[in-house]
Amino acid sequence: MARQKLSIQSKSKQEKTIQEGFKEFTTHCKIKNLAEKTIVYYEAYFAKFEAFLQNAKTKHIADISKTTIDDYILYLKEETEVNDITVNTSIRAVRAFVYYWQSLGYCSQFKIKLIKADKKIKETYSDHELRLLLDKPNMKDFAEYRNWVTVNFLLATGVRVGEFVNIRVGDILMDEAIVRIRHGKSRRERHLPLSKTITKVLMEYLSIRNGEADDFLFCNAYGGKFDENSCKHAISKYNKVRGVNKTSLHLFRHTFAKNWILNGGDIFRLQKVLGHSSIETVREYVNMFSDDLKRNFDNFNPLETISNQKGNHISMKGRNKR
User: Fold this and answer.
1) CA–CA separation, 182 vs 202, rounded Å?
2) Is there a single domain that holds both residue 182 and residue 262?
3) Domain end position, chosen among 103, 136, 162
4) What's the domain of life for this entry (predicted)?
5) S-S: 82 plus which of 63, 86, 102, 169, CB 3.0-4.6 Å?
6) Residues 6+ apart with CB under 8 A from 101
7) Is position 36 within any domain?
């Protein structure tokens, strides 16, 4: 009778712990040069998943199955009482490292599907709120003036806050009316056109800010970096002083996307401008702003346009006579 050959590698995979597997996953993420924020996101949701597995007495990756994931989804919905969108945010993270473990043979192959969730309408700034925010302040206080320029820039470009605070003076190419985004989420450099209005605003700002090409474009009153936390705090205060209770910096990005779509901009260019790797993310904007798309629909509808044109009408009188 033939003996079965022992496999040290198989035994190693069977005994791979959750913690060991996640350490390998984060190393893999760093090798792929993923953004630090992405890795932090994975770490945060791994901690929640790990706590759930500990309560379930699950120590090894090999013990994770589709049932494990289903139980975790039920736990999130019933025990933590988070909404469906938050559940999917958690599952996306879990799916990333579980699929990685599957690719290495640490656990069995199975699909992890997101649950059905209603899309939340993304909040935006109204035209009235924007008029309040875009009213130019006096030029006596640099911080307030910089905040005004910040609002103009975010609304004109739709960039992420993390991208915004890392723009340097040399990234503004005035001759070409372009800004270079070198710290995007995908780590791919992209060039964004600058409109006439924001170009004029930036020219004035740079004449006041000065600075070398390698200096950060947006700075504090002493020339230091205007980091994300400082930016959020400054714009929150700026908005409230002007009577606008919405304070999220990300709303400028949503507002940019909404107005792009409502003004007839195509979603493929919008994808490039916003720096999204998937067109599906951009399609969500179209779905979320579907009610706004109904406004003045008759003005763009070809049937309405042609029907309203003057012309001779065919008379139906006498059609029913025999």
Assistant:
1) 19
2) yes
3) 103
4) Bacteria
5) 86
6) 16, 21, 25, 61, 64, 107
7) yes
